[in-house]
Design goal:
The structure is a single chain. By secondary structure, the protein is an alpha+beta fold. The chain has one domain: Cytidine Deaminase, domain 2, CATH 3.40.140. The protein has four helices and eight strands; from the N terminus they run αββββαβαβββα. Strands 2-1-5-6-7-8 form a six-stranded mixed beta sheet, sandwiched between helices. β6 and β7 form a beta hairpin. Bound molecules: zinc ion.
């Protein structure tokens, strides 16, 4: 079902985030677990050294979202960027002459895929991309550990988002490094509690 990487070529300019930028986004996704985290990468598209990762608060718990089937979702399976924070990032980008290079969000305890809701949000009602040049990055976080990520870029010829897998960044483990047995036990208890309650597929 997924596009193979070689099929993704020709999808237009890709957002190539550096190892450090990816590691930062993975870190955010792990810290925010078991809720979805979201944000934007802004900069000059052809100058990765200008890219800035800007996390934006997920307000899906305050503003429950509905998926494409009309089912309500909270921050564990959906995200809604805080509009004021998003505006602040867009203003910053504007002032610097930057563009939106990428939007990112995490899927706690689910694979990295572009859900129907993700697709819906990325397109206008006329099924045109709202941000044609921007790439969407989805990160899978399982048990507070970033596992995989994919880029989704609009392909004007196929009129669809093409998937390209992103190698997870090499970095120190967030959970195992530097935390004592007590915190580890707390993490495990939280994990078990969350696992006991039913979770809808991530969006
Ligand atoms: Zn999603």
């Amino acid at each position: 079902m997924r596009a193979k990487s070689h099929e993704s070529r020709g999808a237009g300019p890709e957002a190539i985030l550096s190892e450090t930028q990816l590691a930062e986004i993975f870190r955010q996704a792990e810290v925010g677990y078991p809720e979805e985290i979201c944000g934007m990468v802004v900069g000059w598209r052809n100058a990765p050294e200008t890219f800035r990762v800007r996390q934006v608060r997920n307000i899906a718990n305050q503003e429950p979202q509905r998926d494409t089937g009309g089912v309500p979702r909270d921050a564990r399976t959906a995200y809604m960027m805080d509009p004021l924070e998003q505006l602040r990032v867009l203003r910053e980008a504007d002032q610097q002459g930057w563009e939106v290079v990428a939007f990112y969000h995490s899927h706690p305890d689910h694979d990295a895929y572009f859900s129907a809701m993700d697709r819906d949000r990325a397109l206008t009602s006329g099924r045109e991309p709202i941000w044609p040049g921007a790439t969407y990055l989805v990160i899978s976080v399982v048990a507070r550990r970033g596992r995989a990520a994919n880029y989704y870029s609009w392909d004007a010829v196929r009129r669809d988002f093409l998937e390209r897998s992103v190698p997870p960044p090499r970095r120190s483990r967030v959970i195992s490094a530097g935390i004592g047995p007590t915190r580890k036990a707390l993490c495990c208890r939280r994990l078990l509690r969350y696992r006991k309650s039913p979770v809808r597929p991530a969006a």
